[in-house]
Design goal:
Layout: H1 2-25, E1 34-45, E2 50-59, E3 62-67, E4 70-75, E5 79-85, H2 88-111, H3 122-146, E6 150-155, H4 160-167
Antiparallel strand pairs: 1-2, 1-5, 2-3, 3-4, 5-6
Length: about 170
């Protein structure tokens, strides 16, 4: 019995410390080469055209972008600049929503001892505590989307001297 237990322990050791690390270290698919994903992006190509779309994905050697429902791929060597939205709408929506919810909770905890029964209807307070943060989150999203700026994450201008040397 003791020999079987040692062999079982040996097999478990090999599975957890040899086989599983090798399996997890292997690249499983092409998605493992994806570096970053962004919801919205703008690409400036060397020919002067600007391409804007959704689902910008940065791979190790190319950039993919969904333009009007179709996926387009660009080589990194063809791209002069990549811009992304800063993401202010989501940031402001979260802060406005959670901030007002926290205010309702703190106010409810502080004032509950100073009220007599019947001053505030609990159901009305709970409904207000749900509706107000949601509406403020929506307002924060609208304000954030109005003032959301593009940021440059990749800028690679061509130097005119190197273009002439490559053509020769």
């Amino acid at each position: 019995m003791n020999l079987k237990k040692r062999e079982f322990t040996k097999h478990i050791f090999y599975i957890f410390f040899v086989i599983l690390p090798l399996v997890f270290a292997m690249p499983i698919s092409a998605e493992s080469q994806v570096v970053w994903k962004y919801p919205k992006g703008r690409i400036l190509l060397y020919d002067g055209s600007i391409v804007e779309g959704k689902n910008l994905v940065l791979h190790t050697d190319m950039i993919s972008l969904q333009i009007d429902g179709t996926k387009s791929n660009f080589k990194v060597s063809d791209i002069q600049q990549i811009m992304l939205k800063k993401g202010r709408p989501n940031f402001l929506a979260k802060n406005c929503g959670f901030g007002s919810l926290a205010a309702f909770i703190i106010f409810g905890l502080v004032i509950k001892d100073h009220l007599s029964p019947g001053d505030v209807d609990p159901a009305q307070y709970i409904i207000s505590a749900i509706i107000t943060p949601l509406s403020l989150a929506g307002l924060g999203y609208l304000i954030g989307s109005k003032f959301d700026d593009w940021i440059i994450i990749y800028d690679h201008p061509r130097i005119s001297g190197t273009e002439n040397q490559k053509e020769k």
